[in-house]
Design a protein that fits this description.
This protein is an alpha/beta fold and 101 residues long. It has 3 helices and 5 strands.
Length: 101
């Protein structure tokens, strides 16, 4: 029989960008092989203010440093998939709407 891999989904009760390690610690007891990590474009006014990028722009290394928690240690067996969905329309709660082409 083949191996079935399970992915721990992005869940709303942890910070949306957050930390790989936090997600991995939640996924491991559930026997998930991967975690889903949001890697979408700049998606709201808060992120534009923090990064200086425009809504819908691709993340830069500097933006990643600002938006994601920095883990000092990541276990070698940590595996993840990046959840992007850049073409979904965004409404950031401040009346700014955007959809990537």
């Amino acid at each position: 029989m083949g191996h079935v891999s399970y992915v721990y989904p992005n869940v709303s009760d942890i910070p949306q960008r957050g930390s790989l390690l936090t997600r991995w610690q939640l996924a491991t007891p559930l026997s998930c092989d991967y975690i889903e990590m949001p890697g979408d474009l700049i998606k709201n006014k808060t992120e534009t203010e923090k990064t200086g990028l425009r809504l819908g722009e691709f993340l830069t290394h500097a933006a990643i440093d600002v938006l994601y928690d920095n883990d000092d240690y990541l276990p070698p067996n940590l595996q993840y998939v990046i959840h992007t969905e850049p073409s979904l329309p965004r409404n950031d709660g401040y009346g700014i709407s955007f959809q990537a082409p």
